Amino acid sequence: MDRKKSLSTIRGYAVSARGKSLRQRTFKAPKLGEHDVRVSVTHCGVCHTDVSAIDDYYGITTYPFVPGHEIVGHVSAVGKAARGFKEGDRIGIGWQGRSCMKCEWCLSGQEHLCMDIVKAATWDPYGGFSSSVMADSRFAYHLPQAMRPEVAAVLLCGGISVYSPLRTYAKGSASKIGIVGVGGLGHLALQVAHAMGCEVTAISSSPEKKEEALGFGADHFIDSNDKDALRQVEFGFDLLLCTASGGVDWYALLETLKKKGKMILVGFPIIDLKPIDLVAHELSITGSFIGSRTTMKEMLKFAQAHGIKPKIELMPMSQVNKAIQRVKENKARYRIVLVN
């Protein structure tokens, strides 16, 4: 394919309707805006958010839909107002590819809370399971030179998702933190919390993950199916970071929090509980959504400095449906990155 044609079209793996497999299609490339960069995709991670969006779990998916938002590649075109980038630069893009830049949240430096966040996703109009994507250059990031592209891809979503709340709420060695779930997000959270100097406990329903969890940085491991073990840590944690997407015993977990403790959700689990302990112990449950541009840059430097690396399976982009199925079946260990 000649260069002119490659810039005018996109080859992407798209799903046409809920419940369908992805098939390769060719689309007309969106017009490059003045602040935009077009990026030839070399690597793209497969996130649980992609899998959920394919089936329109969030109620915002427009078909045909090309998923993918953990993107590393090389700049192939630069808008006239894009600053700091040139053709050939290796860059990364996470879930957020733009924002309105004018609402109160954007103006306060919290662009990830933009009032028009649905339209801010990198996969609008086409995501990273493709030959190229387009994003606002202000949401594209130069990567540490020594960082592997597959590592960077995962950190651009999974890394920022756990780094941002830990940066906000963890208090270093004074914090006793429970990481709920040892999976795609949890294994990164263990590394980040450990690097921040916290006392870290991995809480998982999969006891076979104990040795790996300790290797990722956990000081302790609790099998969440063991109610006696959970009772032994009642009022034990300052903070719980819940990375699990399901199978959570909310009552048992809340009892492990100190009074005025906090549980942070970084996934989208369904919560069903009576708020007795929540009120009586003055507990808080809050969400945390990716992070700002400033926090993203900080996270990339922190990860490189502390050797934080996801455990990754590499697969060719052509095996995207197989990769999605592995994520659905919880067989990925612990992230999958597709390679063009």
Can you walk me through this structure?
The structure is a single chain. The chain is of the alpha/beta class and 340 residues long. The chain folds into two domains: 3-142 and 310-339, Medium-chain alcohol dehydrogenases, catalytic domain (Quinone Oxidoreductase, Chain A, domain 1); 160-287, 3-Layer(aba) Sandwich (Rossmann fold), CATH 3.40.50. The chain contains eleven helices and 15 strands. The strands form three sheets. Strands 3, 4, 5, 6, 7, 14 and 15 form a seven-stranded mixed sheet that branches. Helix 4 (149-169) crosses helix 5 (186-195) and helix 4 packs across helix 10. The model has no long low-confidence stretch (mean pLDDT 96).
Ordered list of secondary-structure elements with their pairings:
Blueprint: H1 3-8, E1 9-14, E2 23-28, E3 36-46, H2 48-54, E4 70-78, E5 90-93, H3 104-107, E6 132-136, E7 140-142, H4 149-169, E8 176-180, H5 186-195, E9 199-204, H6 210-216, E10 220-223, H7 227-231, E11 237-242, H8 250-254, E12 257-265, H9 276-280, E13 284-287, H10 293-306, E14 312-316, H11 320-328, E15 335-339
Short description:
By secondary structure, this protein is an alpha/beta fold.
- The topology string of helices and strands comes to HEEEHEEHEEHEHEHEHEHEHEHEHE
Instruction: Determine the number of helices (DSSP H or I, runs of at least 4 residues).
Output: 11
As for the number of domains, it is: 2
Number of strands: 15
Q: CATH topology of the largest domain, what is it called?
A: Quinone Oxidoreductase, Chain A, domain 1
Query: What percent of residues are in strands?
Result: 25-35%
The whole-number mean of residue pLDDT values reads 96
Largest sheet: 7 strands, mixed
Residues in helices, as a percent range: 25-40%
What is the multimeric organization of the chains shown?
A: single chain
Structural class: alpha/beta
